[in-house]
Amino acid sequence: MEDRRGGRGFGFPRGGRRIRVGRRTAGGGIGTIVLIIAALYFGIDPTILMQGGSGIPMDTGSTSRPLSEEENRLAEFVSVVLADTEDSWHAIFEAGGGRYEEPTLVLFSGYVQSACGFAQSAMGPFYCPGDRKVYIDLSFYDDLKRRFGAPGDFAQAYVIAHEVGHHVQNLLGISTQVRQAQQGVGPAQANALSVRLELQADCLAGVWAAHADRARDILEQGDVEEALTAASAIGDDRLQQQSTGRISPDSFTHGTSEQRMRWFRRGMEGRTVADCDSFSTNSV
Known about the structure:
alpha/beta, 5-stranded mixed sheet, 46% helix, 11% strand
């Protein structure tokens, strides 16, 4: 984990981690998980995906300022979430005869330089396959609470899990195949491929949640329902309706509310990467 906020550079210990999340204390990972699908449609050019990045567009208006106690708490929290995803994906890859290579989580404020280019907080959390790093400005969580009405540790955990899902896609070669397929096709076709990639990442987040719950009994009654309810409010279709007053399916880049809920649930119920093949089905 890298902390680039204000030129800082430090990591968090991963041995013997224990953190209180929600209503219980969990050793070796996050406590309760809610999975809200932070959907993405705030004017970000879909070619960002084609250039190698995948993230959650938003607009925080982040500026440099001293870090608060809450921001430091969030930094430690996301390091624990990242470690929990590592525990799960190591086990999943090993069960399939593979080896999981861990991504790096980069914290930044305002703007950051990645192998995928220069990015601002307005782009939101994103994964760059070029350097295998997940980038997040923690001020996104405040925006998530205010704009999407999704406060709490549950939402914060999902944001990391979704981007780690993109890392899994990169390790499996799926991201490269999609970018190659997007070359030479029209915008609508490229967007359709982007939707399938994002829905698969939602499904992989569901796989992670199911695996973590089975291994550590972390889900509490109502967590998944809360996640799906939140997801229904922030799909491409609803965000477009709110921002422009109309819906344009050809410009979708992440999927509708119904699609994102369905693919996350599919990952939760199927529990395997094979259940997340969003590219072989005729209809997503």
